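Progress note, sequence design subtask.
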């Protein structure tokens, strides 16, 4: 984007991986109060931070030439201080007649991340990345196969969202201008392993203008593979976002392999933390379940999952696996998918099969970045 346009130790879960050079500070890295202090540290009146935040969050503007309430001779300086360029668009690919668009972004240090914008009849959703790569090491996931490069800053996360909102407002998607209505933290990375930056990003999303985008917390989904300490912290934040738990199997034996963090927190511990979140927030949580042929799609696993969830405030999203090139993992047969859903519903568990958008554009997280890195 141009201006014009062994188990993981618990005490390491929220640590920042080493970086050679940190990204420049951006107003989205700070709380509203911190933004004003940042302005004063740079020799500017505090109210200038609020003005720039209003341009950024309310008007989605990163072009200082449009900042009419800022003296013309100061606009470029203010832009350099408050809104330095953090992400640059490498390329976009589309499918579904243009209604699904995947963007590949290059960060200041050359790292690549992805976001996906999806327009539906009743909403427009962006799926964003919170890390470059992922350290959770799930073997069926393209991002997990790549490993963790580094955490993203709150500014880098927020920039993906603001860029998507700008795309919607400018009418670039078929159907004309629309409003970005939903954000899901289901792109590259484990959000709970980058907790501080993700929380700042959530505040940027939900704070009212001019301090944020003013999007309801109920329209935001935060996923996790089951970092219980992260779920417990989120429970105390007072942000009623939708919690999505990537469970993928109800039994610990298989989950230790599919989701290695399970060696730290077992299925029952993860569900107990999710139950506590639901009780505190009043929000039903989501169980994400990627159906993998002959691995986790057996009827006995559906039966076990149904028994585990039948009295819980949970909804199951069955996800036909989007296989990655060269992977031994592939999607379940349609008849097995249907039977799995039938069994869950027989226990009274609300279940849907997720719309598998983006298959023809390397829709699984990490595939587009991997393809770019593989170029000569």
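Output:
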């Amino acid at each position: 984007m141009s201006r014009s346009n062994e188990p993981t130790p618990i005490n390491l879960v929220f640590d920042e991986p080493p970086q050679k050079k940190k990204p420049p500070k951006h107003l989205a890295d700070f709380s509203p109060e911190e933004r004003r202090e940042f302005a004063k540290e740079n020799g500017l009146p505090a109210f200038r931070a609020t003005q720039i935040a209003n341009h950024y969050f309310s008007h989605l503007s990163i072009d200082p030439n449009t900042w009419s309430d800022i003296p013309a001779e100061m606009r470029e300086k203010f832009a350099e201080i408050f809104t330095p360029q953090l992400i640059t668009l490498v390329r976009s690919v589309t499918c579904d007649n243009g209604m699904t668009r995947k963007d590949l972004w290059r960060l200041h240090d050359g790292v690549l991340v992805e976001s996906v914008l999806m327009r539906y009849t009743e909403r427009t959703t962006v799926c964003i990345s919170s890390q470059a790569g992922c350290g959770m090491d799930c073997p069926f996931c393209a991002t997990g196969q790549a490993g963790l490069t580094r955490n993203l800053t709150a500014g880098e996360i927020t920039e993906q969202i603001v860029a998507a909102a700008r795309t919607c407002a400018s009418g670039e998607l078929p159907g004309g201008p629309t409003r970005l209505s939903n954000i899901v933290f289901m792109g590259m990375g484990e959000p709970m392993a980058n907790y501080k930056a993700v929380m700042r990003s959530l505040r940027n999303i939900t704070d009212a203008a001019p301090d944020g985008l003013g999007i309801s917390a109920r329209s935001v989904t935060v996923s996790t593979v089951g970092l219980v300490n992260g779920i417990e912290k989120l429970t105390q934040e007072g942000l009623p976002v939708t919690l999505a738990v990537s469970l993928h199997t109800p039994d610990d034996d298989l989950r230790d392999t599919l989701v290695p963090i399970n060696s730290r927190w077992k299925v029952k511990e993860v569900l107990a933390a999710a139950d506590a979140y639901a009780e505190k927030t009043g929000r039903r949580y989501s169980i994400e379940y990627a159906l993998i042929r002959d691995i986790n799609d057996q009827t006995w696993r559906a039966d076990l999952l149904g028994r585990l969830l039948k009295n819980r405030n949970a909804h199951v999203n069955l996800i036909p696996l989007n296989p990655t090139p060269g992977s031994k993992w592939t999607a379940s047969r349609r008849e097995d998918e249907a039977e799995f859903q039938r069994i869950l519903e027989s226990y009274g568990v609300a279940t849907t099969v997720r719309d598998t958008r983006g298959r023809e554009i390397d829709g699984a997280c990490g595939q587009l970045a991997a393809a770019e890195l593989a170029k000569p």
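The two ends are 23 Å apart (CA to CA). Work on this subtask will continue into the next period as scheduled.
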